[in-house]
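Assemble and predict.
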Amino acid sequence: MSQLSAGCIKLLQTADPGDLDVFNSPYVVQFLSTKRVGNTNPTASGATPPDRYRIIMSDGTQYMQAMLATQLNEMVTSNTITKNTIAVLEKLTCSFVQGKRLVVVLGLRVLEHVAEKIGEPQNIDAPASGAETATPAVASASTSVPTPAAASVNMSSSSRPPQPPPKGRHGNIYPIEGLSPYQNNWTIKARVTQKSDIKTWSNARGEGKLFNVTLMDDSGEIRGTGFNLAVDELYPRLEEGKVYYISKARVNLAKKKFSNVNNDYELSFERNTEVEECHEVTNVPTIKYNFVPLNLLEELNKDAICDVIGVVKEASPVTEITSVKQNRQIPKRELTLVDKSGFSVRMTLWGKQAEQYSTAESSPVIAFKGVKVGDFGGRSLSMYSSSTMHVNPDIDECFTLRGWYDSSGAEQTFKAHSMSGGGAASGAAFNRADIRSLDEVKQTGYGMPEKPENFSARATIMHIKADNISYPACPTQGCNKKVLEINGTWRCEKCEQSYPAPEHRYIMSMAVADYSGQAWLQGFNEVGVAVFGMTANELLEKKERDPSEYNAIMHKANCHTFNFSCRAKQDTYNENTRIRYGISRIQPLNYKEEAIAMRDLLYSAWAR
DNA sequence: CCCCCCCC
């Protein structure tokens, strides 16, 4: 029988995600289970997303969860890998986002099938205390704790500063990790991996301007900030991507909650701070990425920070939004990114990033570091001012994507993260672990202060409003506009066309209840299709043919329980302000799935 | 000395 790579699970669970030596080593593991997860599509809205498999792999001592890349799904469906299969992992990727490590198996080779589990492996996750609190912002964690192995992959040498002692004035080259307020007379040799816009502020304590940079060497990274005069002096001189000797800056304690740079300290550039460009750039790593494939974005939590790379399929013009909170106009631009996973996702650029984005090249590959995961339309991405984007970076992933897109990707259609393709409905994915009771939603004023809020609920239909259950809509794909009958044809004002017949679309208003109370939920076409199991055209036809059958269908729709993703939004109509609850997703209960989730919940409670 | 990261 094959020898499992004892200890590899611990390595995979603890290594720096950028440590290629760890994640490309040929570990021998045993699969304890393969489980299909997520993503059934009950609204009959068309394409089904690819299945994904979560696997449990063991080294005989410990086991951990991982995802199987979708291109390996066939190994599960064909039973090439099953429970107890022993295989060599040939390629893995690892992302680490908000305390949640995501290991994806990209390549493996089956060695043998055995009858039983080897050893008594323990769940490596079980006692993981402090996982959430460890590193709030993780994209940076990987860059800031490089192991020597990881550094050597990026650079020609794995040696660390301070050595060899550089010639001339830059005697004491310190590693960034070694900086503290107790050190003086240091010099760092670091690459600017990120430079912000110049920001101005004005508050009770005064006003001014500032900028920040992220500085990185192969020991770690640190944030540097320049205020006022230092902006004038240094902002033009520090360029993203270049390497500098920096000395005589002040080392302050970092306020961690405001920074996703993993360092206890940060630099403040002062009047006498010295900055000199360095042209001899060995030992100074370039940005390291932990790319999350676009199809796996829904594995990440809202507000997680991650790295992605994709082809820009579309780029909107710059528009301006009005930030209510800040009372100012902010330029923004939307990009649509796609990748080989077959998914597309929207990426929002802000401010200068939005304005300066070049549309000269039609479908560039762009690598993003440190972007925020949002839940608009299922999943969306947004840049922070600390995020970076690199167009056509000189890295393997970029070349791979370029080749794929030019040979086939450009012709492909892509799956969006949203269930409701129409765009009218939007909202977060259903989150079983975070179901709200209807009473809580009402009592705590979800959606109250003008800001729409998403929540998940599990509720049972009590009553469906029978009048105005649908409207005649434009049959043009994606239009959905109400059409008017004029002389026997149906006119769409938006498309400026007439059609022989409309396509009826549901506008559902229904009372639902859970153990805590009831609420009225509003839903569009997908909701009606899910509830009645037929299109609005079909339902109307039945109504006209046999009203009693229609009544029976309406009646039968009651008392069914669904998982809902809802959006609470304040709404004023006829001078009445109230909160309306829109359904962005509706899923019939899958009792097997629910039972498994409850079992897992019991197990996890028991494991603690 | 900022620390907001926005909108649909």
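The longest helix of chain A spans residues 591-607.
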